[in-house]
Amino acid sequence: MASNTKEKTRVTGEIELGFIEEADSNSLLSHQFPSKVGGMPAWLSLKPLPNLQQLKCLKCGDPTVFLLQVYAPRDEVEQAFHRTMFIFVCRNPSCCVSNTNSNFRVFRSQLPKINDFYSSEPPKEGVSNPDDHPHAGKLQPLCIICGAAGPKLCGRCHKTSYCSKQHQTVDWKSIHKTICTDSDNVSSPGEVNKPMCFKSPNVLFPEFDLVTEPENYAKTNEKDEQEKMNEYKEFLASEAARSLSEDLDEKELERTATKQSEDDEQFLKFKERIRHEQQQILRFDRGGEPLWISALNKPSEIPRCTCGAERQFEFQVLPQLLNDLNVDSLGESIDWGVLCIYTCTNSCHIGNKYQEEYLWKQDIVKPD
Fold this sequence. Notes:
alpha+beta
């Protein structure tokens, strides 16, 4: 479907599919309430921002990096007139453990229509000058590398801000050591910091706009079911199926076949459902059920919100996004099957703060 038929990510009561598009960074600013992938976060609440402790990887302790954000207001909740979910991930490949979520952090930010930062009037679309609008960098220093809160200053020039020692080291090695004494080329606290990703590769992800369209799946159901049956019949008649039965004893064959058939069936369902829109990188279905990629490693229970309310499924990120981020490789890299985001059913009141929510990571795992 043509890209100009897609809209900004919003809830419509049906499953919405997310796609990425090229966009100017100045059309993805905080006051425009964007959904986007990569680059620096377009913070919704401009202050206070999540601190380093909240953003650090729970496995290695390094700062995580912004992955994507989804603007998903709840019209029935007054304090969630504006509402955005933010996902961060550690870029250290060794922290990416199968079916473990410790290298991800997820936050909810929300604001009422009348709030401390933005006009109650709808923003104008298109490219905009960041300096002319509300921005987190006007209220506190931001890390020049990742765009998170930057309470740490360079000890030499006392002008450039960082979230952590790790990102200060990245900046020093890439460019800062050559300009540290040149005050004209160094951001001052309170300025809108500009990304340095062109000088510090493998820190920020490529930036894209995230747009959606309603899923239109019913028309392909009959065809997909028939294709699935044909594939299954072909496998039963194949040399691989006969070889499998010869190599395993009866009990082992039964156990392996049961696990593999359940997992293969779930994976086929996953492939069938996304086949009609293979470029989708996100599925939004608040209150619905995830489209699992595997029959294994499904959550038996989701932790409640800190307010005591249950959490519900809201959206999931698909593995197709890895190709667009240039991290899906044969060597070590971050990876996932699906990332399922669960949020407070009440969208509880949090003021201007960022509330951590829950992410379930499911990978494709071969049966033992």
